[in-house]
Amino acid sequence: MKAILLRRVADRLALVLASLLLASFAVARPSPGRQAASTAESQPRSLELSRPVRPWEFLCAVGTRAALLGNESGRMEAWVYPLKLLRDFRLQFHTEGRALSAESLARTLITRPESSTIVYIGDTFSVRETFVVPANEPGALISLEVETEFPLEIEVRFLRDFQLEWPAALGGTYSFWDKDRRAFILGEETKKFVAIVGSPTAAEEHGEYQTNYSESAVNSFRLGVTAKGRETKLILIAGSLDGRPQVEATYQKLAGGYAHLLRTSADYYRKYLSDTVGVELPDGQIQQAYDWSRVSMLQGIVNNPFLGTGLVAGYRTSGESQRPGFAWFFGRDSLWTSLALNAAGDFPTTRAALQFISEFQREDGKMPHEIAQGASFVPWFKDFPYGYASADATPLYIIAMNDYVAESGDVTFAKEKWDSVWKAYQFLLSTYDALGLPKNFAVGHGWVEGGPLLPVECEFYQVGLGAAALRALSNLAQLTGKDAVATELAQAFEKQARKVNDSFWLADKQRYAFALSIAGKPVDEPSVLATVPMWFGLPDQKNASAMITQLAGIDHQTDWGMRIISGLSPKFSGGGYHYGSVWPLFTGWASVGEYRYHRPQPAYDNLRANALLALEGSLGHVTEVLSGDYYQPLSTSSPHQIWSAAMVVSPLLRGMFGLSSDAKTATLTFAPHLPADWNSVGIDNLRVGDNKIQLSYTRNKEGIFLEAGRTSGSAECTVEFRPAISLRAAVNRVELNGKLVPFRLETNEEDQHVIVSFPVGEGQKFLRIIVQNDFGVSAASSLPPLGSQSRGLRILSETWSFARDQLSLDLSGVGGASYELKVWNPAQIQSVEGAELKKTPDGSAVMLKIPNSASGPYVRAKVVFHFAEVKTKYKR
Question: Using CA atoms, how far apart are residues 552 and 593, in angstroms rounded to an integer?
């Protein structure tokens, strides 16, 4: 009895010591996870972004039923899906006997999730124009906050452009002024489609007209004079797809509730951010980009009353056409985005996207490529070639369905959709060629839709997706109780995975072929598309690492992301949509694949590039495609591309953090590869079945500390913690709430991971991993000036000596340029070749200068760190 009591006392003391240790970690900086949670619950982090106006940059305010699309000069177009109402909306200021174009006075842009504001400044006045599209209303509001010394009147001008989105069209359309409404009425002969554009203070209107002798397409009205001081004016835009009573009701709602609708819109985004996975990061730019990217993904949801609710691909102005960027529904876009939505815990949006796409599945099982918002008005799938143009949407559908069900636990949905998923698999099987690989030729394009990379029989990208779909379908079969089918598919996957590696690996070049030719021969064109099979863990570790080293070179990786092919290829063109440009999508693929294969430096470069893009260009959004030569978007790019935003979320959560959850086993995996200068992160709202988990990670020179707790739910779940440490590091022991617990090490050629599993239920769990001699190096990338070429440092590879007393870095940088490398645990360093330790309080940085060379702007260099030999024996 005495021994039992002593053990209990010892256990209590150990728990107290663990708590004290946690407190010592938290004194200097609040627990990131707790800080993130309290921030979400009380005073959410401001997402406001602001900078001087760039008149050419895209500007928008969007909801699920309507959108304002334009640029920072203030010229806008208005949509109520799938109807375009007007274009070339702009303001003119009348003061002191002058008429001033607003766009010439646009000075400052302020954007928030719920609104976008342009500040115009004249000599004696300012006007703040705020665009708001309520989340669920078929209309928009524009607020004008006026401050003036002298009488000022604002004129509103626009062109009627009353047409359905491409490829549909209306017949005769018209507009007229309604004096009682103080608004223009836009309509067409059947009286079904109607819009109202006006203001409670509108007067002195001028309508469009056409005579034998003159004409004008401009509609305009004035908002009344502000004599002096401050005043707020409103402009209201409403649309209806079902007659005038409906549009009048919407217009009245907008007119009477600006403040309420603005607040409701802000609450809509605030709630979304607080309900999905939140993070607290030491890098404020990635932090802000991650939060904005969640907002951007949410803004991809569109409710089309004729088709349903799904995810569109992106936004851009349509100009004089009726094609607003990619604001129609795409299969593969929504499916790639769904993987980020799942990672962020937004299962309802993924379910809606999967439901929508499945409703347009072809009879033979093929999944749709794109569905125009005007598709219900024309024989879209019969007379147009775009509906089922891609081959990759079909395997992606199977992959996305499994990812959703595995992470959310929604097995009921899997059972409902089993026939649809099985049909998709049957179509995939029907596309296998003589080698047993799913082909693109005569089936549908893979990633590449045109250009000099075609024709090919099958892309490595497509074949990789096909193999991943087999594994996904096997898991779905197992979850839905089809054990025999699951076993058969698992065996088919193992064979297919080997075939994928063998068919595309070029041993003499140490890389994967882009594709197989029509003749069945490998097409040796190294491409970032190889990172898609890596995303799903298909290539061998050694082969994948060799390929990543090549992709990390300056000919593939720019400061703003990944080119599709090498800049040295004869087929390369910096403006080539599918043969040279940089897509944030590619960059995200690369980042996730590189993290999976333990190559954190190029992965971090790619994650950071995408994150910084979200804070440049169209503020808060990530563009579709950029030049492969110069840092600027292509002229045809959609500036607010949904899957580009997803490629900030997936690389952070799935890549750097290595997060995944399995609802069936109630297991959360956390396998972080953190940069050298990141010592803490917090993550909350992680969904594991019906539970929500919060994590707080901290490290110091003594080791790694993880605090885990359940913030909602009642069932016990398991956290599998797998932090990366260097090959030089050694683990002394692991403690959970003060008690020793077992662990194991998983070592590969690049690093090693400590693996510890522990239950999380009632109360907090405090895990401490005592690590000695850990070491890390990283470099934080940045974007060059707009229009410039790359100038950042590349860490191509890291190599440890057998004795772990030497680390060699193979680098590439601009000749004559200096760079800084961040170092974790620098006290171990005895000497450095090719660089010098920076004189900081902790010596945590290394300065490197690249030698000049006449061979080109980029020069190869080498840095070697020398350490003392490790003699200490550690408990394993």
Answer: 12
Paired tokens of 94: 């009348």
Structure tokens at 290: 């991650």
Residues 461-510 have pLDDT tens digits of 999 999 999 999 999 999 999 999 999 999 999 999 999 999 999 999 99
DSSP state string for 502-546: HHHEETTTTEE-SEE-TTS-EE---BGGGHHHHHTT-S-HHHHHH
What type of residue sits at position 554?
I
Q: CA 114 → CA 26, 67, 132, 299, distances in Å?
A: 35, 12, 7, 10
Q: What is the pLDDT of residue 839?
A: 75
DSSP strand pairing (511-512 vs 505-506) = antiparallel
Buried b (16+ CB within 10 A) or exposed e, 186-212: bbbeeeebbbbbbbebbeebeebeeee
- The 10s digit of each residue's pLDDT in 363-380 is 999 999 999 999 999 999
Q: Distance between CA atoms of 105 and 97, rounded to whole angstroms?
A: 17
Share the mean pLDDT of the chain.
Answer: 93
Q: Which residues are CB-neighbours of 19 under 8 A, at least 6 positions away?
A: 766
Enter the tokens of residue 146. Answer: 């006026």
How confident is the model over 739-784, as pLDDT tens digits? 999 999 999 999 999 999 999 988 899 999 999 999 999 998 999 9
**Cα within 13 Å of Cα(63), Cβ side:** 26
Average pLDDT over residues 233-251: 96
State the Rg of the chain over Cα.
Answer: 29
Q: Which two tokens stand for residue 56?
A: 């050419």
Rounded to an integer, what distance in angstroms lies between the CA atom of residue 733 and that of residue 875?
7
H-helix or E-strand spanning residue 383: helix 380-383
What six digits make up the tokens of 34? 């707790």
Q: Return the structure tokens found at 706.
A: 């993880």
Give the global pTM: 0.94
For the chain, helix, strand, coil in percent to 5 are 30, 35, 35
